[in-house]
Amino acid sequence: MTEAVMTSRDRVLKMLSGEKVSPVPCWSGVGNVTTAGLDKLGYDFATVHHDAEMMAKAAMSTYEIYGFEVVTFPFDLCLEAEILGCEMNPYADTKELLYPTIKVKSKNTVEDLRAMAKDPSTATKGRLPQLKEVVKIIREKHGNDVAIASYVLGPFTLGGQIDELEPLLKNSFKKPEETAEYLDALADIIIVIGNELRNMGIDIITTREMGATTDVLSPRVFKKIIMPPLKKIAQSQTGPSVLHICGAVLPIIDMMVEAGFDALSIDSKTPMNEVRERVGDEVVICGNFNPFLALNNGEASDAYNMVAECIKSGVNSVHPGCDIWPSAKSENMEAMIRACREIRP
Amino acid sequence: MDQAKKDELEKKLAEGVVEFDDDEVKEASEEWVATGEDTYDAIFDGLVTGMEEVGRLFATQEYFVPEMLMAADSLYIGLDIMRPHMVPRDTGVKGTVVIGTVQGDVHDIGKNIVKMMFDVAGFQVFDLGRDVPLEDFLKKQLETNSDIVCLSAMMTTTMMGMPKVIEMIKEKNPTCKILIGGAPITDDVADKFGADGTANDATNALEEAIKMIVALKDIQKEASKN
Q1: Which of B5, B44, B74, B109 is nearest to A169 (CA)?
Q2: Alpha-carbon distance A259 to B223, whole Å?
Q3: Partners of residue B198 on adjacent β-strands
Q4: Is there a domain that residue B224 lies in?
Q5: CB-based contact (8 Å) between A41 and chain B?
Q6: Is A218 in Cβ contact with B109 (below 8 Å)?
Q7: Structural domain range at position B30
Q8: pLDDT at position A163, please?
Q9: Of A42, A79, A206, A275, which one's alpha carbon is 20 to 30 angstroms from that of B206?
Q10: What is the three-class DSSP state of A12?
């Protein structure tokens, strides 16, 4: 297959398998819906989360408008928490565009979680049936032209969604064995949900363990209680997988590699040059420009230059360091894509 | 209480905070209070000195957020016991603070650390909590006529509410100082948003807050000499 006729799905999947793809793919396994896309569809952000057709169309809009090489959904971090019994707040009554958060926490015990992981009905709960519908709508429209991506939270981050974060943080230090047990039980839930996402036909799953960044936890605690459940999740993957942790992750980058995902996604706080020095050329790294500075704050030329710098620093694909804030300027989005097509490493 | 005993208890309080030893802090605080003496030095040269060391350990990445939270718990144990026994000082530095995490953001740990330092410094703190509707900051500011409003956001996706709050408040009350903080906040962003000050992470927030407390301590020492 020549690269000229490769679909963007081929390009992204090839990149994640470790092959060099030129020009570098431009995609994101985390939030990338834009206000421009929502406006074109006439959608209010708060209403797209619980409707398959709206979610599918909003998810496809960044690919359709800009040529961003992926369709990623959902847009919030509440999928697993809702399955576990939490209540989500979509901010329907707010003028501001906001990502949903958890309003009522389910506070599941380890025993609850163990039982739910064994219960076959868990894979049919919450918005999972809706997501299945979303995949169908996207494939009907675009076939295999574009990669479909979704994500799960890492156990520590999910723990902070379904219960209070402060005790979890303290217990990670004070009661590591108990916390490890809790995170292991959460990992089993995440695996059940991840498997269901694969069954639906989702190509790429990113595990987002952003709560366990070294801005928050010591590398020592990371090694002791975050690594074992992450490895378990990595081993359960049956398709392309990415691990995303935000913040300055250089102190744990070797462990992130060791966790065993196909690729790592890092944010702009972690210097890419140093990452390459540490992990070598074989590890697939997606990253790592600052989406707010490049796409919302600056001019189109800033976006172009920041993405160009990112490519030069040796990433395998251009991927924003965290969610694209929806109000990203159209001309900056276009400049990002242009830079990816024009700049060679 | 003689100086040697004071030094010993202050050291115990400081070490208790650094080692998150709640019992040690409780014991030393109660011992100090039992003497019937002003607890001012115990708080500032004991508890706050301990927290300064925690700030240093955090900055050098020996301590992380869990350690800082545990140290803060220990500090509050001492503060709760000793503050009712502190002789108030009239230094001209007093104030009211409204603090909260902006709507859409449910992270409040950084906010709580900053709040702690205002508590220690004797500010009257109105904590609106987390996920706070933007208009509520303005309402509370007007109601309390606070000198300072502190806004926190942990995520890029929520910090966009900040300039709106700043604009609302500055329009009604241009002298109110607005401090913003959180992981995505840089000096540039703070500047662009029209904030008066910033701390972009917990280390920075703690450092800034400690600087503020130390400055306050100096002012108070100066004032008590006169």
Answers
A1: B109
A2: 58
A3: B180
A4: no
A5: no
A6: no
A7: 3-87
A8: 96
A9: A275
A10: helix
